[in-house]
Inverse folding.
């Protein structure tokens, strides 16, 4: 059985080499406990109701609340042309619900006084086919005049309204510094050449730069999170390899034989390679959860490997011992096999990784067991 095992391990290694580019997932969403179908449904529902996309943000820092609102208005003025030509589906800004004092003063200054407005209204309705009484627009003129002399809108005026919730979410203060956030909505994928939920960042960055706002930053939350996740995966792989090397050193100290160390580690490496190759052939990208599952394979399989390795110069393995090993392995496989049937992706990942890995570790450890122990076992069986 050793030659077929060698062929299997070589085939698994070749599979991993062929799939090395897409072997590991580069998206943090792969760790989500929500199934992919539910995530896709959530994305469609959010798009249907026009909910803001939390992926793309323009973050603006300012020393005061008014400065943050003014800078948000300047950035919004540059983003609006992108919406007009379809590069953006839309965006939100705190200045939409709470304009800056400067913008409010400019709007109030643009309102004509009562006499000018009344004259304009008379000129507008003059010589019309239907006669309009001059006093019909008196309430409107009075409202405009009242608005001209009204005080500026403040954040306190919005308290208790739905607009206050939006302002509180988009305009925040921390340690004396204010931040304004402008969530951007990506255009509909059906009308663009971009993938679903993606956005061409180049025109957005250019628009933010044209606004001339200091400390304004366009952030792709998903890209930044994925970048952090990839760095964590690389670090975990390095630490896992370092831990594996430490285990090898400890085994060398305990067993005092490089040959025995190789025999103890070979079944574990083979089991991990075969399980990983299975995921690669199935088109399942690996995540940190798979890496944890591989560590569990090593932890469980090391017991089997060390047992068979230590039988080199000892008594042959008795049938009772083999039955105990088999029952323990079946219990492990059954436990993680149930997890493999779970609809929760995290539990399913552990089950699909550790269940087959533990079974393969026992089988490979038995196949690679020292021949002396195997011969002793056959002799014991013939006597029985």
């Amino acid at each position: 059985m050793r030659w077929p095992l060698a062929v299997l391990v070589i085939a698994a290694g070749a599979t991993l080499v062929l799939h090395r580019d897409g072997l590991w997932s580069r998206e943090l969403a792969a760790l989500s406990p929500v199934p992919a179908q539910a995530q896709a449904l959530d994305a469609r529902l959010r798009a249907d109701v026009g909910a803001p996309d939390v992926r793309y943000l323009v973050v603006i820092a300012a020393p005061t609340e008014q400065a943050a609102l003014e800078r948000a208005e300047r950035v919004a003025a540059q983003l609006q042309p992108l919406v007009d030509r379809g590069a953006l589906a839309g965006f939100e800004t705190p200045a939409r619900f709470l304009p800056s004092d400067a913008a409010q003063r400019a709007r109030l200054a643009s309102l004509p006084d009562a006499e000018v407005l009344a004259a304009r209204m008379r000129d507008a309705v003059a010589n019309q086919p239907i006669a309009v009484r001059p006093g019909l627009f008196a309430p409107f003129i009075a409202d405009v005049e009242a608005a001209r002399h009204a005080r500026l809108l403040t954040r306190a005026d919005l308290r208790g309204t739905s607009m206050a919730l939006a302002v509180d979410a988009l305009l925040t203060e921390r340690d004396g510094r204010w931040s304004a956030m402008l969530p951007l909505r990506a255009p509909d994928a059906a009308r663009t050449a971009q993938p679903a939920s993606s956005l061409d960042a180049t025109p957005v960055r250019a628009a933010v730069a044209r606004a001339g706002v200091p400390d304004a930053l366009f952030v792709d939350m998903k890209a930044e999170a994925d970048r952090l996740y990839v760095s964590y995966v690389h670090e975990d792989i390095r630490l896992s390899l370092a831990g594996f090397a430490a285990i090898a050193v400890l085994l060398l100290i305990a067993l005092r034989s490089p040959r025995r160390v190789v025999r103890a580690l070979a079944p574990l490496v083979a089991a991990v390679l075969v399980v990983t190759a299975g995921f690669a052939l199935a088109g399942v990208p690996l995540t940190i959860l798979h890496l944890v599952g591989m560590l569990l394979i090593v932890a469980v399989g090391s017991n089997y490997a060390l047992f068979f390795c230590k039988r080199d110069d000892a008594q042959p393995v008795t049938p009772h011992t083999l039955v105990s090993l088999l029952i323990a392995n079946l219990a492990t496989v059954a436990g993680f096999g149930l997890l493999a049937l779970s609809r929760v992706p995290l539990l399913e990942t552990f089950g699909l990784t550790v269940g087959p890995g533990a079974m393969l570790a026992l089988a490979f450890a038995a196949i690679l067991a020292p021949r002396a122990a195997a011969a002793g076992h056959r002799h014991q069986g013939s006597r029985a």
Remarks:
- Residues 2-31+257-383 form a domain with the Multidrug efflux transporter AcrB transmembrane fold fold (CATH 1.20.1640.10).
- Residues 190-196, 373-384 have pLDDT under 50 and may be disordered.
